[in-house]
Amino acid sequence: SQNVDRTAFHQFTQDFLGAGKSIQALSWIPKVTNKLRAEYEKQAEQELKQKFGIKNKSDTGKMVYSEAKNEYFPVYYIEPLVGNSKALGFDLASSNTRLITLNQAQKTKKIAITARITLVQEKGKQFGFLAIIPVWEQENKELLKGYISGVFRVGDMISSAFEYVKDDRDMLDMWLVDATNKN
User: Fold this and answer.
1) Distance between the two ends of the chain, CA-based, in angstroms?
2) How far apart are CA 106 and CA 88, in angstroms?
């Protein structure tokens, strides 16, 4: 559908989120021009019934409202909202690692995966990653509409995998290699 609202996004994501515990969240990240920023923020505030703004992390790690720039890629819808609300409004293009992945997905027109990151909503010490899928305008497949992202916490994925082999853990040999880590 070309026009998915917050309710439709919530309903669409439930089957994916209910399938396993390895997905932290699913989100919609629209391409928002500076000209449309105020409109997007106002719409989100009405729908969420709370303050909403496009944000980035400051040098001290605190979330602050983004300064004006040509375009943003904010987390506009996120499911489940509980436990992930801190990510609402976060401009993925404000993080170099995330921006590289957005650009890769757009260039290749395929799914792209970030290097390991600390999620904006992370309360523990787990690393995570995003799987980013570009979404194109229906009328013009060359115009980027935004991205869908899958949000994953590595430790949760491993715990979920172990649940499937509860009684046979001795038979499981698992290696997890971060190919993006140059150290």
Assistant:
1) 43
2) 22
Closest CA to 153 of 181, 110, 123, 180: 123
pLDDT (tens, 9 = 90+) of the chain, 183 residues, equals: 567 788 788 787 877 776 656 788 899 999 999 999 999 999 999 999 999 999 999 888 889 999 999 999 999 999 988 888 999 999 999 999 999 999 999 999 999 999 889 888 888 788 889 999 999 988 887 899 999 999 887 767 767 666 666 666 566 666 666 676 554
Q: Among all chains, which residue has been given the structure tokens 């019934």?
A: 49
Kindly tell me the burial class for residue 115, based on how many C-beta atoms sit within 10 Å of its own C-beta (0-12, 13-18, 19 or more): middle
10 φ, ψ to 5°? -55, -50
CB-count burial class (<10 Å; 0-12, 13-18, 19+) for 22: middle
E strands along 47-164, which residues?
55-57, 63-65, 71-72, 77-79, 112-113, 128-136, 144-153
Question: Which residues have CB under 8 Å from 173's CB, separation 6+?
Answer: none
| Three-class secondary structure of residue 168 per DSSP | helix
Beta bridge partners, 23, equal: 152
